[in-house]
Amino acid sequence: MHSGFYTIASVILTQQNELDTIANNLANLQTPGYRASRLVTGAFEAEVQKRIDANGQQVLGDGVAYPISVVQGEVACMNSGLLEPTGRELDFALNGDAYFNIQGQDGTTYLTRNGQFTVDDQGYLTLPNIGRVLGKNGPLQVGQDGITIDELGNVYNKQGQQVGALQLTRPADNTTMTKMGNGMFTAPQGAVNADNYQVVQFTLEKSNVDMNQEMSNFIAAQRAFQSCSSALQIIDGIDRKAVAQIGAVQ
């Protein structure tokens, strides 16, 4: 097989992953608090370009280390989105370095900047399709009569009585979060209480997805994908002709 197949095929797979990542960003353009993702790519080491089978270690191609593109993972762009007033009582946004804590239906505690909450039939503050919002003493039960919240996250009912306080955290210093679906994060290395924030009621934080940037990235990735597909067809045609000529000589 022509060695160029490995390089071109790897780039095609990488660009397909890039297109999927961009498409997911665009799909979450209107998801409050969503953080855009970026693909991290790298190259295989020469050792990985070898096949080990029953006959021992066999070098792929002619033994020369050709550049092969691989996806190493995704990273989230953590810059904040714009705050947008909504006039809705159960919409909360955060200024500063803090995250809402959600008790997922699977028992996992998720961190998110999405404050588009509702109240379930038992009076618990809830993030739809994810789980119940955590207060400092567990899931936050606020009742059905409406609430107000101050800048520190203390929650009051319509009579002015405090019914709880939001649990607001951030990842521990020198740690990273793991991005999950729908704008959720986990902090596998631990989270600590946030101390530099402001809660804003009747407001949502928009996603930080930049439509113009994503469309530019999409066009670039699509063109790279198409170029590699054409190159792959050319190499395949060359190999077919070579095989045909060898067959004619024999």
Can you describe this structure in just a few lines?
By secondary structure, the protein is an alpha+beta fold.
Architecture overview:
- The protein is α+β, with helices and mostly antiparallel strands.
- It folds into two domains: 4-78 and 209-249, no CATH class; 83-205, no CATH class.
- 25% of the residues lie in helices and 33% in strands.
- It has two helices and 21 strands.
- The protein has helices at residues 4-27, 211-249, and strands spanning 37-43, 50-53, 56-59, 69-76, 83-85, 92-96, 99-104, 109-112, 118-119, 125-127, 131-135, 138-139, 147-149, 154-157, 162-165, 168-171, 178-179, 185-186, 191-193, 197-201, 203-205.
- The strands form seven sheets. Strands 7, 8, 9, 10, 11, 12, 16 and 19 form an eight-stranded antiparallel sheet that branches. Strands 13-14-15 form a three-stranded antiparallel sheet, with no helix packed on it. Strands 1-4 form a two-stranded antiparallel sheet.
- A hairpin with a 5-residue loop joins strand 17 (178-179) and strand 18 (185-186).
- The longest helix is centred in the last third of the chain and has 39 residues, at 211-249.
- 28% of the residues are buried.
- The mean pLDDT is 84.
